[in-house]
User: What shape does this take?
Amino acid sequence: MNLNKYKLLAGDASHRQFYRSSENSIIVYSKKNKYSNLLVYEAINRCLDKNRIKVPKLKKQFYSKNYIEIEDLGNNSIFKILKNKKKKNNTYLQIIKLLKLLQKIQTKSITTFRGKKYKIPKYTKLKLLNEANLFLQWYFPRVYKNKNIKNVKKKIGYVFEKLHSKLKIKKKVFVHRDFHISNMMFYKKKIYLIDSQDAVYGNIAYDLASLIDDVRLKTSIKQKDIIFKMFMNLNRSIDKNKLRNDFEILSVLRNLKIIGIFTRLAIRDGKKKYLKMIPYAWKMIEQRISGNIIFKDLEQNLNKYINKKNRLKKWK
Assistant: This one.
C-alpha cells in the first residue's frame, strides 16, 4: 500500500501511524506489534461500542497488509477544548459520567475480526510494578551515576512493592489504562474514546488518577479536587478514604511509569517531544507524596538519590 498519497497525522506514543484518507476514514498502520495495535484495538472498541461508549468504528480491515481503516472523528479533541475553555467543570462532569459507564463493563472476552477469542487481562501486581520499574530502567540511570546503582534500584523497587501492598480496594473494574483527555474526541456532540487497546481489569482508582493527574494538561489542586468530588458524587457506595488512598498510590506509580516511558521514547525511539512533560510529572508526584505518611519511604529515597534540580530541569 502506498501511504504517501495520504495525509500523515500526529501520532501517539505507540508504533502506529495514522493517515487521513479521502473516504472519511483514518488508516491505522502498524507493522510492529500489530496484534495489539490493530487486532486488539478494534476488538476492545467493539466491546466499548456494545456497552454504549462511543468509539471509532471499523470500516475495513487489511490485517495481512498491516493496517485497518476506522471512522474519522475529526480534529476536535477534548484536550483542545479544555485547554481553551475557562469553565471546564461541565466537560469534566461528562467525562466522569463516561468513566462510570466504562467501569460498569463486565465483558471478559471478545472475538476478534480474525475469529479468535481475546481475553481482557487483569492488571496484576507484577504488571503494574513492571510498569513502575520503567522509571528505574530508563530514567534513573540518567540522573544517578554511582557504581552502586544496581543496589539502589533494588531498594527503590522494593519501596514500589510496599506501596502496591497498601492498595485497599479489591474489587476489579474495567480499566481503559490511558484515560486522559488526549484520548478523547468530541464528535457529533458526543465524547468518543480512542487508544483503548491496553484495557485491563483493575483498580477503580486507576483511570481516575489518569484523568486528574494528567501530565499533558496542567490543572490546579482546586480543579483536581473538584473532579475527584464529581467522581465521589456519582459513586457514593465507594469508601472515600479507601478511594483516596488508592488514587494517590496509583497516581504516583503511574507518573513514575510515565517518566520512564517518556525517557524511553526519547532514547530508544527518538521522540524527544515527550521529555518536556517530565518536570510536570515530577511536580504531581511531589504534590502527592509531600506530607503523606504512606509515601515516607518513597520520599526519603527520591530525595536521597535524585537531586530536586534534576527533576525539574528541561531535558533535551
User: Anything to note?
Assistant: The chain has one domain: 76-312. The chain has a mean pLDDT of 93. The CA atoms of residues 12 and 195 lie 9 Å apart. The first helix runs from residue 34 to 50.
